[in-house]
Amino acid sequence: MGRTAGTQVVGGWSRMKSILSLPGLWPINLFLVASLGPLVIFRGNLNRIMIETTVSGILILLVVLVGLRMLLAVVFRRPSITDPLVVLFVLCGFYNSLFSSDRSTLLFWGWQVIVVLPIPLLFISPSMRQVLPKALCLFLGIMNGIMIVNIVQHDVWGRRSALRAVLGAHYPPLQANGEAVTSSRPDIYYIIFDRYARADQLARVYDFDNSNFLDTLRKRGFQVSGRSYSAYQRTAHSLASTLNLDYLPAANGPSSNDWIPLYEQLRAPRLYSFLKAEGYRIVTMGSWWEPTRTSQLADRNDSYFAVPESLRPMVEGSAFLRGLGRMGITWLDPRERHCARIKHKFEALKQAGSAAEPVFVFAHFLIPHPPYVIDADGVFKTVDDAHASSRRSNYIAQLEYTNKAALDLIDVLIDQNPKAVIILQSDEGPWPDAYAGEEITRFGEDVTPVDWNAIAPDDLREKMAILNAMRLPGKPAALIGDGFSPVNTFRVILREYFGLPLQDLETRNWVFVSDNSLWQFRDVQEELMGKESR
Length: 534
Known about the structure:
Elements: H1 5-20, H2 26-44, H3 51-76, H4 79-93, H5 96-99, H6 106-116, H7 118-124, H8 126-153, H9 157-170, E1 188-193, H10 199-206, H11 211-219, E2 222-224, H12 235-243, H13 260-267, H14 270-277, E3 281-285, H15 290-293, E4 300-301, H16 312-316, H17 319-326, H18 334-349, E5 359-365, H19 383-388, H20 391-416, E6 421-425, H21 433-436, H22 457-464, E7 468-471, H23 489-498, E8 510-512, E9 521-523, H24 525-530
Parallel strand pairs: 1-5, 1-6, 3-4, 3-5
Antiparallel strand pairs: 2-7, 6-7, 8-9
């Protein structure tokens, strides 16, 4: 006789419970393998990655692995095979680049053998299915332990509190000063086009005439500063000083290469706190770069397809993504996602305003900043296409796309709200060719080291001469001068629109002399201005 329907249901449910059960060591192994990659990345970047970023990376990866484990359990229905497969898949497909980026080394291939060889044995050897979970748990536990000990013993922790104290004292909260000058708060759009060169440098270095774009901005009501330099030569210093309305404290606190206190000032600047107290809705549209990916003070963070920094290097260097690419599956390719992110942000900016409350929008575009992923018409540029073009052609193509998309965006914003304040700036200029390095596939890696005490003046100008244009409706046409410093950007806005008694700071330009002493600055204003004054 056949089984009854009730028996079938009970039997099916028993099999499902078996598939989804948590036998043996697999929950521990999943947690250990999810934590190992972010901890390895954190250990190598304690001065660049925040603790909370590492924790979020571990949690995200753990959720993904639990989902993958459940999916494989449905396919194989044998937890003794499924659980080790998930761990080995991560070790082989994603962690290989963490331990050796050079695929020609013995270390790299030794790693592949260690993590690949057990996979076929799982299917043919019952003893392997018994031994492997315990071996993985021991191996992963030791590796995690080593990372944690190294992290705890690192000397970066001893100086961080002092650096935070210096910055906190230097940037006290901004206080409102009575009623605003205007009866209503203007929407404010602060748009950064990273490494957008100034017009004279575009002509000198790239043989490109940018006057049509700048003239069109002027017709839209923008004031354009034709001789503007960034206050600093790197993004973190430059944006932190602008958003905190003052230069960084020079030569204060211990010498350190710890960027975290600076990143904290960039992600939660005093400008945001002031505007929130004034009833503003804060929207950030960041990049894959961690300090602008999110802000804890923002009411909305839009970081399209940008993973935490504690996962990004592992994902972008993974053998899994390379394998998908060879099969023609490229929708996860970081260069394609970066191209899509650029387009997404231009469109999302058009929807960022709100009729109910004033809005402050910070949008950080890593364009014309490399990697070179888009042509002048907005079409994705493959690695082969980028390699087939010169560095100049790649850079100018991204700049031309930026110009077109920016003008389209500006027209939409003005049409939505004619009183909107719009700021277009670059935080730094492009790297001079001698220091630029590889600019087609690289994400987030420092360029060739630069001796900032000996850099040629023309190279220094190229690095620090920036786009700087502001639309200030209802205000005098000469508020920003020809050499207007970005550090005064929000001093002007808070003075003119909010009545704060903030005077412009004297224009100064600095470089931090090396990554090992990023709080020690050298004044380079005379070098920058020397040729221009003649």
